[in-house]
Amino acid sequence: MAVFRSRDERRNDALRRETLDSVSPGMRIAAAWSWRILVVAAALALLGFLIVQLRMIVVPLLVAVVLAALLVPFKNWLQRHGWPKGLAVAVSEIGVIAIIGGLLTLVVLQIRSGYPALEKRTKSQYDALTDWLHGPPFNLSDKDIAGYLDQAWKAIQADSSNLLSGALDIGSTAGHFLAGILIVLFSTLFILIDGKRIFHWLVRLFPKKARDAVRGAGESGWLTLTRFVKVQIFVAFVDAVGIGLGAFILGLFTGGFPLVIPIAVAVFLGSFIPVVGAVVSGVLAVFVALVFLGPVPAIIMLGIVILVQQIEGHVLQPFVMGTAVKVHPLAVVLGVAAGGFIAGIPGAFFAVPAIATLNVMIGYVARGEWRTNPHPDLRDVTTDVR
């Protein structure tokens, strides 16, 4: 049966065809991409706004997920060796608390024992430096030195304000800090106890046709996150041993200055914050060497720090980290910089694992692997031992 259209409808169709013909194909494609990019950007902006508003919950939850990525394989290993699930969960969580608490306690005790000597040597080195600046060729007065120090301190404060803002926002009060610790502990505990059921519940929130893709992407992302945590601990251990051994050889463990262990622990913990942590911990090691041993050992310590970081950057990161998470070093640097600018220390800390996990998940879905490989080979990473 013929379809009769009014004159106005025919005129409108002709006008639309004329309008489309007047726009080049390239412009139509650009317009189609533009509105899609705007929609994605708006969604990301909304997500970022929600994260910022709920940062007191989101950041501890992310820390718990990272800890769980380390502890779940250990818990499963204990279960495979005959441990009851409850005991395996308890040992996993209490063990990590004991290790972190032990490291921090050791650092505090070592610093307390070495602080009087550090204070005395710092004052002595400062007096020697000011005496040297008073003489030729500088001929600076005490007022000039105080002014330069004040300018340097203001510059440091200005440069570090953005970086520290995230940490200050998260732990601005003792109550907020305690609440964050409790969220981390309880979230880690429940992920260890019932992580698989929580994940399946999240998958069921998506449409039925998309669940296979979401499930496979989530499992592949979890595998990548687990590998990242293991490799990051190994890299941090290598940095701590290298710089700590260099400090020991230089003699920072002798003469009543037992600061090698705090330096090694600071390097180990700082390595979990890419780029920033390595720089801060390296500066600490060089400063201690300068105060206790003088300029020449400080230069040697600087060389040791640079050597260890070069080994990390050119050997460990490309071959070990690159193989584990498959992220280009440029993406790591830009991600850390962007994360630090947007969210301070938490942003720098979570940038690399977030990029690595999202990279694997998006690639898994884009390649259509969920059709042929709905369950990536996770081995002991997420296997739930009954």
TrEMBL record:
Protein's cellular compartments: Cell membrane
GO cellular component, one term: plasma membrane
Primary residence: membrane
Keyword Metal-binding: no
Transmembrane segments: 33-51, 57-74, 86-111, 174-193, 233-253, 259-280, 287-311, 331-362
InterPro entries (alphabetical): AI-2E-like
Membrane topology: Multi-pass membrane protein
One of the GO BP terms on file: transmembrane transport
Keywords linked to the UniProt accession: Cell membrane, Membrane, Transmembrane, Transmembrane helix, Transport
Top-level division of the source organism's lineage: Bacteria
Family label: Belongs to the autoinducer-2 exporter (AI-2E) (TC 2.A.86) family.
This protein's name: AI-2E family transporter
Organism of derivation: Schumannella soli
